[in-house]
Amino acid sequence: MTTREQWIAFITIVRKEIRRFLRIWMQTLLPPAITMSLYFIIFGALIGSRIGEMGGFTYMEFVVPGLIMMSVITNAYSNVVSSFFGAKFQRFVEEILVSPMSNNTVLWGYVLGGVARGLLVGLIVTLLSLFFTRLHIQHIGVTVGIVLMTSIMFSLAGFINAVYANNFDDVSIVPVFVLTPLTYLGGVFYSIDLLPEFWADVSRLNPMLYIVNAFRYGVLGVSDVNVGTAFLMVGVFTLLAYGYCMYLLNTGKRLRQ
Amino acid sequence: MSKALEIRGLRKVYDNGFEALKGIDLCVEEGDFFALLGPNGAGKSTTIGIICSLVKKTAGSVSVFGHSIDSELALAKKEIGIVPQEFNFSNFESVWDIVVNQAGYYGLTRELAEQRAETYLRQLDLWEKRNTASRMLSGGMKRRLMIARALVHEPRLLILDEPTAGVDIELRRSMWAFLKEINQRGTTIILTTHYLEEAESLCRNIAIIDSGEIAENTAMKTLLKQLHRETFVLDTKEPLPDTISIAGFETHKTDEQMLEVALEKGGSLNAVFAALSEQGVEVTSMRNKANRLEELFVSLLAKS
Ligand SMILES: Nc1ncnc2c1ncn2[C@@H]1O[C@H](COP(=O)(O)OP(=O)(O)OP(=O)(O)O)[C@@H](O)[C@H]1O
Ligand SMILES: [Mg+2]
User: Fold this and answer.
1) pLDDT in tens, A172-188
2) Partners of B252 in the β-ladder
3) pLDDT tens for residues B183-211?
4) Exposed (0-12), middle (13-18) or buried (19+): which is A69, by Cβ within 10 Å?
5) Residue B96 predicted with pLDDT over 70
6) Shortest CA distance to A54 belongs to which of A231, A227, A201, A216?
7) B57 interfacial to chain A (CB closer than 8 Å)
8) Distance B74 CA to ligand 2 centre (A)
9) Residue B19 to residue B43: CA distance in whole angstroms
10) Chain B nearest C-alpha distance from A171 (Å)
11) In chain B, which end has fewer C-beta atoms inside a 10 angstrom radius, N or C?
């Protein structure tokens, strides 16, 4: 296929992916909006006022960046894993597998779908947060950069999950048992300075800590960790995930019999 | 003429160790209408799966219009349109979206995709249903949707895996007419079916596959010539005498007023009727016991 034909195929997948999550907005866009609004009300407004300051900011200001990032991560991941697994489950992934488009086209089509949902939900959550606090973005480049890279990384990870998933339980295992706990423990709700030395060190092994802090640095200008390290780490994980996705597609593992 | 499909020494061992294809050779000329027949589990869908790269081959080679699926897979894929045995489209998408998106996967511009989608949905009588979610179509409509989807990029080789399974007679005949027409316009067609009448009326060449091996691969006419025994069923006006027999013919009284007569190649039906008249039997109607290809099929499979 010519580059132009690959481009058309790519746009076809992206369009289809975006239309899919918009069509089922009650399952894709509404839940994070409700959950995050509840977080804002409970942690920010009700409990937050008693907690006082965290890292030099009101508690509300402190938690908002982490909650936005958490929404981006889970939605980018969930979109790709459920869409691609659905295609596998109903077998219409075969429409793509028999077509002449390249494996890169297929992969980036799905990844961009995940990124689109991650960013859209991130935007919705950001807008909702404005009812509770003000946001003055300190470093726009860092903010946008980390959101984009993170949503790409988790979309790729969602794709790997979809290839291996055998049933709908396998689709929700990672978001529920891995992503959410790691994000909660990754400094969304507290600064790791508050933790005893040992637990602070353990927290530094959690990749989510770097992502959440890099984003918080972009928005508030403060971070518990080095932001350069965060970008490097997300970059390395993204490359690894990309390499693994291409390995799966090129060998046809679990996709072609 | 060039070859639409050339298969050499194709073997498939599935992950569980089952050998579904034991080294088959198959050749389909451009413009042909080719039947791939065989009993359940013979390896037809496996062969088709390998051609369109949904199944990974264990050994052997496949090329489509000269493009090897090992070295020029994308070019080979462009030439193929596939109608699989099982439904494989999204239940939630509309007929229109399914066909238009498929065109997009082959790199057709949106404009061309919509134009083609309209052409084929109209030809396959699905135009009225274009905005319907695919899960709400009837079984026959779903088959036709898969045909429209397979044709939207105008492949030179169309492969249909049991396209008329569960399709009523009227619709089956209109599908036959449609397939004949696109074959006449130049599309090479390979078809699998369990309705042998379908293969006989549509296909010029035929391969019979059994337990992963090619049992027969020849022209339909040549094959039908091999048929050396045909069974006829006669209905009679009065109940048949118990002693009924026709010298030189194998007969079988299946009912009071029904007689089966096996006619060997070169045998004369006149002799049958003469013998029956002599015994005072009046025949009111006569038909073939089975489709001719069916008899051949059964005897071939019994041999192998
Ligand atoms: N994924 C698989 N793993 C293991 N064995 C398989 C797999 N798919 C098919 N088979 C086996 O391979 C053999 C050939 O199957 P195939 O589907 O090619 O038959 P077929 O000729 O299309 O039959 P039918 O007329 O019933 O559609 C069967 O014995 C089947 O059980
Ligand atoms: Mg089959």
Assistant:
1) 888 888 888 888 888 88
2) B260
3) 999 999 999 988 877 888 889 899 999 88
4) buried
5) yes
6) A216
7) no
8) 24
9) 9
10) 18
11) N
